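Researcher: We're teaching a course module on how sequence relates to structure. For the next exercise, students receive a sequence and then see the predicted structure as tokens, so they can try to spot secondary structure elements on their own. Here is the exercise chain.
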Amino acid sequence: MAGAPNVPMPPPTASDVSLQACLTCRNVRMTTAVAFRRNVGMIVFRRRYTLGGNLCKSCIKKFFWEFEWKNLLFGPWGIISLIVTPVYLIWNFFTYLGAMSKLRGAPE
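Model: And here is the predicted structure for the students to work with:
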């Protein structure tokens, strides 16, 4: 008897909350998908850093504050960076609020 065809599972969406290993601390906890962005302006050049994946509540808090203060300190040093940095600050803020509301009842 032939088995069912191997159908790939769709990738998880940003609204999923699941019990799995956190991307950064590797502890099995309730996680949700997040993406934080950070900009480093260097007068003429700029660098962009992104942290994305399924993170637990503790790691979301940790990386939100780390990315925000680095954005404020190192971000606005360049013409393009003057525009990009505030966008990243707002992006991270709303990502953080959304993730915290999804993981509201989850223990840390």
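Model: If you want an answer key for the exercise: Residues 6-10 have pLDDT under 50 and may be disordered. The chain has one domain: 19-102.
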